[in-house]
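User: hey, got a sec? need GTP cyclohydrolase 1 type 2 homolog folded
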Amino acid sequence: MTVTLAQIVADLDAAYPPRLAQNWDSVGLVCGDPAAPVVRALVCVDVTPAVVARAVADGCELVVAHHPLLLRGVDSVATTTPKGALIHTLIRAGCALYTAHTNADSARPGVSDALADLLGLQRTVALQPIPSELDKWIVMVPVGAAESVRAALFAAGAGAIGDYRRCSWSVVGTGQFEPLPGASPTIGAVGILSEVAEARIEVVAPRGARAGLLAALRAAHPYEEPAFDVVELAGLPSGVGLGRVGELDKEMSLREFVAFARQRLPGAAWGIRAAGDPDRRLRRIAVCGGAGDSLIGAAAAAGADAFVTGDLRHHVVDEALRAGGPALIDAGHWATEFPWCAQAVGLLAALGVDAAAYPEPTDPFVLHA
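Assistant: Yep! Here you go:
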């Protein structure tokens, strides 16, 4: 059965939730008709002219990219602009464009998981976890209406805990109320104190779902004035976030690990460079696909012996080593993010899409002398 672009976008958004994206980022569907069928797709790190040409030549209806083609400062997509020319080429060919950037960086599995897996890291956790932002909703409802109210809360986004859905806790107690003049009580009468067997339903939900949950609760609850509490829970480290840190199966020297990483990772034109004592023994490794020098402090705090990322800068590395931080390994921006493409290809293939990764490096640096 042919899958539509809308179905694919829904699955990509579920795998790489847009809420995980940084506030400066631009992610999601860039162009394309959600109702259009998708048979073939191309996954890439960068949307370059060569990538677009390949997608069109292969008859792809979708390009899934990691780096946004349109990010900041774009006020025209005319064909006279480089980015506009690519957008027009895609649209003329009936090829949609979808971007998963910093949301794919933080998701689990995501960009850094693909990098960690390729390097054989075990028992990985987020290097910079995103704190959970959850509310607890406590709703009192007549026992006979408890299931319908609970179902409405689930449909509005409540009840998700990790890999579990439709999670709730409830107990039955006695509620009492006295309707005042002007009220239209579902149960009881104005001026009379009533007691009702009520279920106390507790569910957790993302803070961002408050408006939708409130509307769903009021629509499903039989009472004119539902009794409920919303408690903002403390933010705790979650399983998602930037970077990963884990352990190698066996200890290696920095020199050995760099050679190992060079064998496992796709190569940048200049190979891999490392800073630190070549004989330093490594076991605990931190990684971050792409430009990750902002996480050097987090890698040090996590007790990492080495940190693998891209785009490391001279003074940042020098200062980090002087501070006694981990050995630092720059494997290139594209090379540390490209492993994610296989992950995205697998997600699309599971939907029945004929998907492939664009295999050629799209790193702008192509020569090393």
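Quick note: Residues 300 and 324 are 9 Å apart (CA to CA). Let me know if you need anything else on GTP cyclohydrolase 1 type 2 homolog.
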